Amino acid sequence: MNEPLVIITIEALITVLVVLNAFAFATLWERKLLGRFQARYGPNRAGPVGYMQPLADLLKLVFKEDFVPEGANRVLFQIAPLISVITAVTAIAMIPFGDPIHVDGYTIQLVGANVSVGLLVLFALSGLATYALILGGWASGNKYSLLGAARSAAQLVSYEVAMGLSVVGVLMISRSMSLVDIVHGQESSTWYILLQPVGFIVFLVAAVAETNRPPFDLPEAESELVAGYHTEYAGMKFAMFQMGEYVSMMVISALGATLFLGGYLGPWLPGFVWLVIKIVVLLFLFIWMRATLPRLRYDQLMRFGWKLLLPIATANLVITAIVVAVFFQT
Amino acid sequence: MSSEQADVFALEAREAREAARREGRELAETERIVAQVEASTPQEAIARTRANEELSSEMAPGSRAPMIINLGPQHPSTHGVLRLITELDGETVRDIHPVIGYLHTGIEKQCENKTYWQGITLVTRMDYLSPFFNIHAYTQSVEKLLDLEVPARAQWLRVMISELNRITSHLVWLGTSGLELGAISIFFYAYRERDRALDLFEMISGERMNNRFFQVGGCADDMPPGFETLLREFVTEMPSRIDEYEGLLSQNPIWLERTRGVGSLPADQLIDLGITGPALRAAGVDLDLRKARPYSGYEHFDFSVPVGTNGDAYDRYLIRLREMRESVRIIEQCLDGMPEGPHISDNRKVVLPPRGELAGSMEALIHHFKLVTEGFSVPAGEAYCAVESPRGEMGCYVVADGGPKPVRVHMRDPSFVNLQGLRPMAKNAYLADLIVMIGSMDNVMGGVDR
Predict the structure, then answer these.
(1) Is the CB of residue B183 less than 8 Å away from at least one CB of chain A?
(2) What is the pLDDT of residues B361-372, one digit of tens each?
(3) Which phi and psi (to 5°) does residue B163 adopt?
(4) Is the ipTM of this complex over 0.85?
(5) Please, are residues B443 and B79 in contact by the beta-carbon 8 Å criterion?
(6) Considering the entire predicted model, what is its pTM?
(7) Which of B124, B204, B129 is nearest to B173 (CA)?
(8) Which 8-state DSSP code applies to residue A220?
């Protein structure tokens, strides 16, 4: 951790720029993939095969009027999208992208912040991101938004628990909360998806719910709540909510890859390439689910979370604890 | 607020009070909203909200007064312009108050100012998803008044096109109600097939929507060359497409959870409300006008009427899919056994003479001139004929006084009648289920408001 400040700054800048560009193209790829799933082309007009579409979207959103509706709480209405983006982008810092590299006598850590409780910080940030939805929905002064906000609060509280429990098994095996150590642990044994298949499935389902993606996109269920918590948002504020959603999708995919799929480990290719491949695979799953599955109802979502996911995660945790305690005691 | 708007609100308030007095009850919460709180501009809405907030400021926090939410008329899933004033307690719907009329175009009244054959163009525009059924009911009533025989080929053509229309209408329903439940892909699959059927409509009638194909006395034209091959291709492919839809949804646990047990009413209540079509058959009542009162030669076809048991949204879904399969069978039988003969009656007092005769026959020219300028006269009387549209009993009541224009045309549109089922269904349901119910009843607002 003895890197000069300038290197850390450069690192952070590169990461944020890459992530924001990845967000732009994630929206494009999602639309293209959805098009393929649905027997149509998807965006292919702007630029070569549609690759300028994110730029066109950005330009459109930038030039929209930036307004606050009457009856909204001005301060909270403006802050909410910021919370959404900041928490999502900060969370990237915990993800290790590769082994440290050595340039000109300096050792550069390919992780923004190698803290010993990296996982807890990530969960804390994703918990904070909920405030963006709740505050944004409440501050809009719109009944649809309010309903969306109430739904998101209930949903995120329920699924945060299941998700937290699903990764405890990994922590027990790796005996560390630092994501770097967890990856190292997988280097010495094997990918934790093989040791924790149930944990991985619970994590995946909870991750979809955490990021409000279909079939758990109740806070913004467009057929019931118009657009849920972001009904009243337009222009760049809307774009920031989108950014928050997509970046947190990428973060949670990266977390899943790190915890269960060996993170940046892999033969032949450099570490970050492997991580990107694993993230893309998980993102593809997100999009596939969106194209295939109908949306759950609010009470069914709650029932699924508390009565199915949580018991499974708990049982998984207990069994892992017993196995680790009995067979791998050191 | 302009005085004109104030008058409208005063009128609504008076109507609501009178209705309440007639029925001997207090004003319902929603009626008070309609009559008093409804605002026409955002500024006015805010002013009223603030006034209400001041009024209710002494109300204790945590009180359980319902939240009034205005679903529609511009809402993604109200199928056009249905407006539901909804009382919500959390996610639970306490009551709904449907407000209709946003798509009112006065078609019934306009028909009184048009000759009989001009009226056909108007009625296609009511239920815009099933134009052929609208005209079919209308032309049948006029034919009944005229006591006009429709040639067998025309009847079979009508059956064939009607069944194709039933498929397209059900496909729109399938796509949109899938979309409302968040299953977005089914929408594109359903519209892909619908587009091919619309191409066939365009081929035979020249239009993709609002097709003016059925005439009084028969059909406007025979099948164009090549139509039969394309239609055969379509019906051979359609069953596998329906399998595809079923593969996506019928066993999908989320789809089952969302639609099973949603929006079911007992069969006798459905009958009391006058609900017909798939919504009634899903509840186990075997009522299909094609079997109960065969018209247009339906007695010659071999098909079955799917009937459900629970009457919930899932049964309605299954029944519509099976109806599509039956429609495919009927179309195949039509193509196989299409009788030879004219496609329209040869009664020159009612039916336009063929184009070719105009050049050579003075009489034909006179008939053509008289029919186009004046229209044909219909003997005085009244007639009601109904067809089984994709949404239920589509009836048309025509009163004639002997002149070339009807005195009264009334359409019994199934969407309008079926909409009444929504309120008893929606009470104490979840908000998300309300959307499923609207979708599963398949109301077309053009038909509701006419």
Answers:
(1) yes
(2) 888 889 889 888
(3) -70, -35
(4) no
(5) yes
(6) 0.83
(7) B129
(8) G
